[in-house]
Amino acid sequence: MAKIKKGDLVVVISGRDRGQQGRVLSVNPETDRVVVEGINRVTKHIKPGTRRDQQAGGIITTEAAMHVSNVMLVDPETKKGTRVGYRTEEVEQDGRTRTKRVRVAKRSGKDVE
User: Whole-angstrom Cα distance, residue 100 to residue 12?
Assistant: First the structure.
C-alpha cells in the first residue's frame, strides 16, 4: 500500500530538484513511481501528427516519473517533509462499526488529507 497518493503535497528529497514542492499528478504502484507537478521536467521532441487530434510538432516539456523514495509528504503543520504512519479509528457507518485507517504525519502527529 502506497503512502503517497494522488493530490498529496510532496517535497523532493534527492536529485536535481531537491527541496522543491509540488502536487502528485499520478501514482503507479506497480513500478513505485510518481509524477509530480512542475518537478523533473524533461524535453520531448514531438513529430507533427497527421490526424486532427494530434498536436503540431516541436519540442515540448513535460513531467517525467520519479521513484516514490525520492519524495516525502509535506507535514500540514510545519510545512516540512515528514514520514507517514497510520492510526486506526472506529467509524459508525450504516448502523455498523467499521475500522478505518487514517494517515498521520509522524513529525507533528496531525492527520494528513
Answer: 29
Whole-structure pTM over 0.90, yes or no? no
pLDDT category of residue 59 using cuts at 50, 70 and 90: confident
Whether the CB-CB separation of 58 and 80 falls below 8 Å is answered with no
pLDDT of residue 83: 93
Q: How far is CA 47 from its chain centroid?
A: 30
End-to-end CA distance of the chain: give it in Å, rounded: 16
Which residues, in sequence order, are bridge partners of residue 53? none
Contact 63, 39 (CB under 8 A): yes
